[in-house]
Amino acid sequence: MKKIGSLLVTALLALSISACGTTADQTAGTSPDAAKSGEGTKKYVFGTDATYPPFEFEKDGKYVGIDVELINAIAKEEGFEVELKPMDFKGIIPAITAKQLDGAIAGISITEERKQVVALSEPYYKAGLSLVVREDNTEIKGPDDLKGKVIAIKKGTTGAKQADELAKKHGAQVKYFDDSPAMFQEVVNKNADVTIEDYPVVSYKIAVDPASKLKIVGDRLNGDFYGIAVSKDNTELMKKINDGLKKVKDSGKLDEIINKYMKSESK
Amino acid sequence: MTSSWQVILDAVPVLLEGSLITLKIVSISLAIAFVIGLISGLMSTSSNKLLRVPALFYVDLIRGTPLLVQVFFIYLGLPVFLDIRIPAEAAGIAAISLNAGAYISEIFRGGINSIHRGQMEAARSLGMSRYLTMRLVILPQAIRRMTPAFVNQVIVSIKDTSLLSVIGIRELTQSGEIIIAENFRAFEIWGVVGIFYFIIIYALSWLARRLERRFAVK
């Protein structure tokens, strides 16, 4: 027993020491990247959603989408490196203010509230929100039919803000989710009557997934512009992003990227 | 439309990668948690108030708050205060370690208290020091009794790592979320993710039962 005991203790100690080693390495590994400008290019950590096609999602183990290609195009123009870090949308802006991220590209609508806490780039896309229902739903044709209905939405989005306002105005109930797939599923499963999501995201989903059982109803609601978020005190990075974005826009590369993923969109 | 089997087959490699990250985080965290739990558990059974009170406070603090809040606090709260960057994995490991450490501390306290105090008195009267008695008499017996509770905590911690998906760690649950975002197949993918967790935990339970039988008092 004594032998087993001391063996156990030794093993545990060794394990935890090596564990502390890894953790320390990781801590050391990320932050000095930005400082390492002397050798090679600067590397910035950008938050993204990764569950938000066609803007950012994973295909065959690689991050793809409009936002992913755009940030890479900007980085190429301006000569910096990008490390994408997928996380929950609602955590992205807090993570920038906490300096856990240098910036983020995640279909972030430019709003006054967000401008208070992070810097937002020039707009690169006009999204607009749509009401989405199950395909067999004939009751809801527009915002006026929302009385007594359940709206599923994603936490921390402009769609969520819109839903709160509509719910108050028309007497509907709001249910909150962490990501778009869960929110769509809620409508498909009939636990919610309707969801509000950025138009391109829904139209992409309906186009790619014939079994989606969803349809868009009514006109597009207010049109928000997407921008790239950057930590407020990082004016250097903000300048690079805006300069790069301008170059990508002027060269027609941005339209090219958008068209590549928006083939399904009729407009 | 792709068949369910194809969807599952395509998902398996990604989910395996996620499982490995889950296992890595859990094993590092639990190794640290075991050390924290042992120290804190010994402190909480001490008769010295200066040792006992901080240990009990730590346990109450961790048990009294949800793990999700602890994760957000460490990853999103602390960096604001300390003005440093904490990588998601380190924050996740810290959260799980501190959380499991508190529960393991209580397991140790219960295990140590379950050994009749007469044994401590007997060993002390033989001239053994408190430390030696603890190491050679009390702990070896207590640890045996603690095994089922400890295995239980390991299982709880494995499942708890799914909460780390919120800070962007690509463990098993997050891997599932990412696949569903691409193919929208909630039924198949969540089903397989569940099976993966079950396999990991079932294998562990089986191993634990075997070990328990080996170390059982005959």
TrEMBL record, chain A:
Keyword entries, A-Z: Signal
Every Ionotropic glutamate receptor C-terminal domain range: 43-264
GO molecular function terms attached to this record: ligand-gated monoatomic ion channel activity
Position of the signal peptide: 1-21
Source organism, top-level taxon: Bacteria
Recorded GO CC terms: membrane
Domain Solute-binding protein family 3/N-terminal: 43-265
InterPro entries xref list: Iontro_rcpt_C, Solute-binding_3/MltF_N
Protein's name according to its UniProt entry: Glutamine ABC transporter substrate binding protein
Annotated source species: Paenibacillus mucilaginosus 3016
From TrEMBL, chain B:
A Pfam match: BPD_transp_1
Subcellular localization(s) per the UniProt record: Cell membrane
The entry's keywords: Amino-acid transport, Cell membrane, Membrane, Transmembrane, Transmembrane helix, Transport
Superkingdom to which the source organism belongs: Bacteria
Domain ABC transmembrane type-1: 19-208
Membrane spanning residue stretches: 20-43, 55-78, 189-208
An example molecular function term from Gene Ontology annotations: transmembrane transporter activity
Position of the signal peptide: none
Recorded topology in the membrane: Multi-pass membrane protein
Keyword Nucleotide-binding: no
Primary localization: membrane
GO cellular component: ATP-binding cassette (ABC) transporter complex
InterPro entries: AA_ABC_transptr_permease_3TM, ArtM/GltK/GlnP/TcyL/YhdX-like, MetI-like, MetI-like_sf
GO terms, biological process: amino acid transport
Stretches assigned to coiled coil: none
PANTHER family assigned: ABC TRANSPORTER MEMBRANE SPANNING PERMEASE-GLUTAMINE TRANSPORT, MEMBRANE COMPONENT OF AMINO ACID ABC TRANSPORTER
Family: Belongs to the binding-protein-dependent transport system permease family.
Record's protein name: GlnP2
Species assigned in the record: Paenibacillus mucilaginosus 3016
Organism classification: Bacteria, Bacillati, Bacillota, Bacilli, Bacillales
